[in-house]
Design brief:
Blueprint lengths: L3 H16 L9 H22 L4 H8 L36 H15 L16 H9 E2 L12 H5 L4 E3 L1 H5 L41 H10 L10 H17 L3 E2 L8 E3 L12 E2 L13 E2 L7 E5 L2 E5 L20
Length: about 325
């Protein structure tokens, strides 16, 4: 009876015989023809190498890269040097019946696109799609442990905010005189929205509002800032709009941003009452750290002084200095 060892030896010997069995390479006419082609190709390549390579390789090695040996002249093109860029050729217009109308319309379109929008204080280069992006940068979820009375934010911002007195502001609540600039919003100025006593007359655009430091610089140099600013009403409106927007969303602003660039004096004789100002919450930073007057359209009325239209803050009373300070606490 065969053992496991004998069975293993027989299997190993059989595998050795199969492995050493000579193999016969079978070839047909097709394989022979393919081998002949390969041999002829190798012979041709050997001859080409002996002659210095084919023509295409010789041309590639002998060519030199193109080099610019002069400086290209740069010329500024504008409407003065090239006025034709602001007009269209009549051949570009379709049917002859619409030649004149189309030429005027398309020329106007080209002029708008080729005009420097930054000149003249125009805001046409601003996109309304930027507002959500900028707003997302300014706002953040409200911090639960924030306390505006204990943080150092007020001490950091206080030196940078200019003090603007009531008498100074009232000098800007009028229409611009000769040599003065009007509000950047133009026909959309907030001065046109006052309807208290202007029935049949309508409002008017206010003069540009300058901070005291900017006004002093203008008086010294005679030059206005490069960009036209908003009037006092529009500035109050934009600050109040952003402030209410933050509070309505129950959010807070980042502490490295601020809505106001000036502050008003309150509860002082001849100044504003605290109840007429914007006041921030204690446990949420809303972009306002010090009192600033809130814009209310019904708080103004129009008067004409020496032929110049003014707005008077008739609903913003003056502080009562005789009242004890314990009874003048804000109700906010």
């Amino acid at each position: 009876m065969a053992t496991i060892k004998d069975a293993f030896n027989r299997a190993f010997a059989q595998a050795q015989r199969v492995r050493t069995r000579p193999t016969v390479a079978e070839s047909d006419s097709d394989s022979a023809e393919e081998a002949s082609k390969k041999e002829r190709q190798k012979t041709r390549e050997r001859l080409d190498r002996g002659k210095g390579g084919n023509k295409s390789n010789r041309n590639k090695r002998g060519s030199e890269p193109y080099r610019v040996r002069h400086k290209i002249r740069r010329v500024t093109v504008n409407s003065t040097t090239n006025p034709e860029i602001l007009s269209l050729n009549q051949n570009m217009v379709g049917t002859p019946s619409e030649t004149k109308e189309m030429l005027v319309a398309e020329s106007y379109f080209v002029n708008q696109r080729n005009t420097d929008l930054l000149k003249g204080g125009s805001n046409a280069h601003l996109s309304p799609h930027h507002h959500p992006f900028v707003r997302a940068l300014l706002l953040k979820p409200r911090e639960q442990m924030f306390d505006i009375q204990t943080c150092k934010l007020v001490d950091q911002v206080f030196p940078t905010l200019e003090v603007v007195h009531r008498q100074y502001e009232e000098g800007y609540l009028r229409e611009p005189l000769e040599g003065e600039r009007a509000c950047v919003f133009g026909s959309k100025c907030e001065g046109f929205e006052i309807r208290t006593n202007t029935a049949g007359q309508g409002g008017f655009v206010l003069r540009e509002f300058l901070l005291p430091s900017e006004q002093k610089e203008h008086e010294r140099t005679g030059k206005y800032p490069a960009e036209v600013r908003m009037c006092l009403m529009c500035k109050r409106k934009e600050i109040a709009r952003a402030f209410v927007n933050v509070r309505a969303d129950w959010l807070s602003m980042r502490t490295d941003s601020i809505l106001q660039d000036y502050r008003n004096v309150v509860e002082v004789e001849g100044e504003y009452c605290l109840k007429d100002c914007i006041l921030t919450r204690r446990h949420a930073y809303e972009g306002v750290v010090l009192p600033i007057v809130m814009h209310i359209q019904t708080a103004y009325e129009m008067k004409i002084v020496n032929g110049v239209r003014h707005y008077v803050q008739w609903r913003m009373g003056y502080p009562n200095t005789n009242e004890h300070f314990l009874f003048s606490a804000p109700s906010h």
